[in-house]
Structure formats: structure tokens, C-alpha cells
Amino acid sequence: MFTKVLIADDIDFNDLGAAQILNELDVLEIQYAKYCDEALLKIKKAHLDGAPFQLLISDLSFKADHQLNKLNSGEELIAAVKKQCPNIKIIVFSIEDRAHRIKLLFDELHIDGYVIKGRNTIYDLKRAIQKAYNNEPENVSPELLYLLQDKTTREIDNYDVRLIKYLSIGISQENMETVFKQEGISPNSKSSIEKQVSKLKIYFKANNTVHLVAIAKDLGII
Amino acid sequence: MFTKVLIADDIDFNDLGAAQILNELDVLEIQYAKYCDEALLKIKKAHLDGAPFQLLISDLSFKADHQLNKLNSGEELIAAVKKQCPNIKIIVFSIEDRAHRIKLLFDELHIDGYVIKGRNTIYDLKRAIQKAYNNEPENVSPELLYLLQDKTTREIDNYDVRLIKYLSIGISQENMETVFKQEGISPNSKSSIEKQVSKLKIYFKANNTVHLVAIAKDLGII
DNA sequence: AGTCAGATTGTGGTTTACCGTAAGGTGTTG
DNA sequence: CAACACCTTACGGTAAACCACAATCTGACT
């Protein structure tokens, strides 16, 4: 079993539960971080000291407060950690249950497991840690495995996400052409953008653009 | 101090932390509920048995799963509980930090305290329980008190919320007139609706309607 | 190079949104 | 009841979104 584990979670309440599980799994050294930056720092330090963490259990959302942080989400933390220590195992542990966001974690950040905080957390997290240790693939709870099958989320690519994102921050379709050209995003003609928005509306069964953005927000796509 | 407390939270992980705090406060009887319906049932039963709960600590969001529930949010649970047992004290305990939603809890459901799940949860919840026991007003953490001062949320009334809500589910301004008349919402002329949407856009500094709805969703207004 | 399918862009017309202004209603006050 | 402010509704013009169709470009294959 892992011997040195870091838990990154901004809710102090969760430490107790995590500690209990890791004790049951006979993990010797457990450290905690309440901020992303703090977590990265600890991982870097341990790495330099020649006693690296073997597992990071991280939440996704970290509340902003008076402390200024460079990293402000689990995604950013994980990307930074992977860059620094590619060998560390990473399990994400969050209440987020929207397939799209979770899918991205596996596909782009190559995490080693995902546990939804819920009614069976204690059991699920324990299993996930064991699976991560044994390098088992598809390290998610059964209900999530089902969610990840959902096509809806797979057929929405980065272009779509950025398009909807820009719509949601008030860029009109008129101006989208200019913005896309500045950002080097293609296709970027007014006509193409209209067409793509229209496709997305059909795809998500949205009556209009307002509806589309609301749906995308609900699904966690933006 | 309270002697009988119910905790309604669907994340099993949180039970440990809550139990620790309540033990420190010498609360004798602590019960847990993972579903809203379950929580209401326990409260009803205790009431009928002549040994009612004195305090309910409830989360706001409860995940849906295979179990069908009549009540599906903390708000619904609290409304139902208040109806049944007006004397029970209620503290809401959630990660929700958006002023608008919290404000509604105090103004319409008359809760006795609010604690944001965060880095100081253990301290904050303990204080909140003591304050609720002593009937102290404004039972929130200092940072939240500041948030609740924010005017933004006070000046948005029910009409605005419904308007934005309908926009977000794909009702065009064209059709809003018909919908509002059916629902008995007034004013309902196309002109009035246009005007109100326009006001809201100015208020929230939104470039267009899409942007407005996105902002409203981010603020937790809808 | 030539062909072709599919993607991208362009164009014109229709609908909806947007915005200013004016007309109509309602309630208050002297 | 006249005067007034304020709210609601109506109207008209402009801009943006929407939609169908046509033109152009692109890359793969022969």
C-alpha cells in the first residue's frame, strides 16, 4: 500500500474522514493542504527531499479567500503536479457529478481515479485507493462508469466549449468572428459560428442561445 | 446546551466531523439522515413520541439517486420541518456561499444560523450552535455577514427571478407575454418585459440576454 | 493534375431582440 | 376633480440572430 499520501481539500471537516480511511489502509504518513499552492509546494518539497508523495487525493473546487493563490482549482493543481512529478498517482475526490467535467480529468489530466463525495464515500474512496495502488483502469464507482458512457459529453469538443464560454460572457455572434480571429480559433466566420451554435442548439434541444448557455452551465460544460 | 440534534447531510464523510463537534458541546443524542425525506420522518416521529429534536443541522443540496424522495433540497426540507415543528432551531450547513440564496433562507425560511463549509468549519459550526442555543441574531460568520450586506441581492425581487428563470429555460421574450399571462404574473406586456430585461442587464452589467442569464446562474439567483 | 466530398465562408431574407419615445392607466395629493 | 408622478402598454425603427441556399476552399484519393 501507499506509504505517503497528500490530501488537498479546503474543507477542514473532510480531514477526519480521510484520515480514518487511510489509517484503515495502514498508510503511514498523511499530510493535508487547504490551498492548491500549499499542496503543490508540499509535493515539490517532498520530491526534492527524496521522499516524494505516492498519492495525491484532491478536491476540485477551492474557495477563494484572503490568501492569494496561483492555482485555484483541482484541475490546475493536478496539471502542475503532473508536470513536476509525473509518477505520482492522483485520485480526485469531489462532489462534482457532471460527466463532462469528470471525463476531461481522465482524458486530459490522466488521473488515476475519481470518487464522488456522496452517501458511500467511505467505501468508494477506500476501493479507489486500492485500485489506484494496483494500477487498475476505470477507477470509478459503477454509477459513474455509467455516466461516463454518456455520449452527450464526448461529442462536445474544445471548440464547442470555447464557443459557448464566449457566448456566456456576453460576446455576441456578431463579434465572435473578431474574437476568434484574435485568439487564432478556426473556423471563425460569422456564418460558421452561426452554424455551430445552431448545431449545438439542436444537440442540446435548446430553444435559443440563452437556453443553450443555461443548459451548458447546468451540465458543467462551461 | 441542546440535548437532541439531527444532522441531515448526504455525504457520509461529514458525519464524523459533526459528531466530534457535538460531542465537544456535550450533546447527548445525535442522529443522522442521508435523505431529506428520512430527516423529515425522524423529526415527525420524535415530535409524536414527545421527544422532539431541538436542532436540525441541514445541508442544502442532496444528490438524487435510486431512492425516490418527495423533498429534494435543504430548502424544501426546512419548509416542511418548520410547518411541522415551528419551534425547532435550524442551522444550515453548506458549501453554498452565494449571498442571494443564503439571504432567502433567513428572509423566507427564518433559519437560525448559517455556516459555510470551508477552512474553519469546525470552529464556525461550534460557534453557530452555541449562538443558536442562545438565540443570538445574525448567526453567521463575519465574512458572510459582509456578503449579506451586498445590495445586489436585495434589489432583485421575485418577479426578476421568475423572469430570468423563464429566459433560462428557453422562453423567448416574444412568448414571455403569453406565459406570464397564463401564470398570472404581472406586468406581462411584451414592452414591460423588454424593459425589465433591459434594466436587469444594466444592473448586472450584462452585454446581452445570454450574458445576463449566465451571470444570474453564477450568482445563484436562478 | 483532376475529382470529389466535406468543411468553410458568403449572401439575402425573415424573425426576434433591442431601444427610444409616446400613449394610456392608476393612485395620490392638495 | 385637477394635477401630478409613476407604472404599464403600445409603436416604430435599428441591430442582431436565425435560416436556407450558394459559392469557395481544402484535403484525400486516384
From TrEMBL, chains A, B:
Entry GO MF terms: DNA binding
Domain Response regulatory stretches: 4-132
Source organism per UniProt: Flavobacterium sinopsychrotolerans
InterPro entries: CheY-like_superfamily, Sig_transdc_resp-reg_receiver
Protein name, UniProt field: DNA-binding response regulator, NarL/FixJ family, contains REC and HTH domains
Highest taxon of the lineage: Bacteria
Residues with PTM 4-aspartylphosphate: D59
PROSITE patterns attached to this UniProt entry: RESPONSE_REGULATORY (PS50110)
GO BP, one annotated term: phosphorelay signal transduction system
Keywords from the UniProt entry: DNA-binding, Phosphoprotein
